[in-house]
Prior knowledge:
By secondary structure, this protein is α+β, with helices and mostly antiparallel strands. The chain has helices at 2-23, 26-32, 36-43, 72-77, 83-92; strands spanning 50-51, 54-55, 60-65, 107-115, 118-127, 132-137, 143-148. A hairpin with a 5-residue loop joins strand 6 (132-137) and strand 7 (143-148). The protein is flat and about 95 Å long.
Amino acid sequence: MKKSMKQILVAAGIVCIAVAAWKITPSEAKLENTTPEQQIIQKQPKPITYRFGLPVDSFNVVENTIENGQTFGTILAGFGVDYPIVDRIAHKFKDIFDVRGIRSGKNYSVFLASADSNEVARYLVYEESPVNYYVFDLSDSARVYKGEKEVTVKQREIAGT
């Protein structure tokens, strides 16, 4: 009887250890050895960074400048965007932005998302000027919209004799 009681206690101890290990996640285990102030800092989510109204943290962003002779189609083809999507954007959204208006020397950014083993272009942002930009949504439900960067006006005065 004593031998079976020992076996039951050992088995119960093993079960308790397994349940405790299952319930404590690695992040909680790390929090056990920290002060309450450190725990508050560690539990706060990382703030999301936005650029052109898009969450930069969710994408791999490639920034470049349009070279002489480059077109809207050649830029997107370099990032694996299918021609039907390029054609749909060029024709359907001509009233918002005519893709023939892309000029060399202007900046653009491509937002790439990981899909399976390769990266897929999800957005292209064309910076028309230091303030105005256009966002091209490259998903199946393609759309285009114009945006403006926030501008801070600082007035300064200088005098001299």
